[in-house]
Amino acid sequence: MIPPTCNRSKGGVRHPGKELCFRSPCFGAPAPRLLLVAVFLFFSLSAGRPGIDDKQATFFMGRVKYSSNDGNDCGGVGQDLMRLVSRASTLKIQEERKVRLTDPDLYETPFLFMNGHNDFVLTEAEIENLRKYFSHGGFFLASGCCTNPNFPKAWRREFSRIFPEEKVKPIPYDHLIYRSFYTIEHVRCLNEQRDIQLEGLFYQGRLVAVMCEDGLCCAFSANNTCNEGKGISPEDGQKLALNIAVYALTH
Q: What pTM, to 2 d.p., does this model score?
């Protein structure tokens, strides 16, 4: 159970009287972070499933400022992702919170989102904070913008630095992330004869970070206009983004 001293939350899902936080002294093992969230979403997500009608629950996330990036690439995608979650549940949404990887608020933000167009390099302090963040239950979603290959290439390289024994790798289609809300058998690329596959970073067998190189954020937010017919379709993008969010909040 989350310790009674924990009384703040700046990311993820919050319930009145059931505050979610994993900043010291609450900073602990992954399971307590997700206990209340998992119970709530298990019952409230998807039509026809018995639900807890908690109209005061809120979903919000941290929008990451990293390296020299101020967290404003494709500016509306964070809020659009939260609206997707809100439409599929009884959760209310709040404004996204900008957070740097070196900020103390990082540890109060169980769900982080990061996107971009360009190459980047994380500092040693940013890498160390991410190592602590993931080892204590945080979850991270990243998306390249406009199918630009520079961001995904940098993300694979930098996130493979976090845990010496763990490298970013493709997430196979039998993983639960493709079944967490919608059942997704495969996602076809609009401009190439191939399936689009999520990539992830695992820690002790647990998926802690997910990245899509094919303009996922543009698909679910900008109706794929900036992808110009490339990457993921808007319909598949919305389904995939919601699956990722639900998986993050229930596992």
A: 0.74
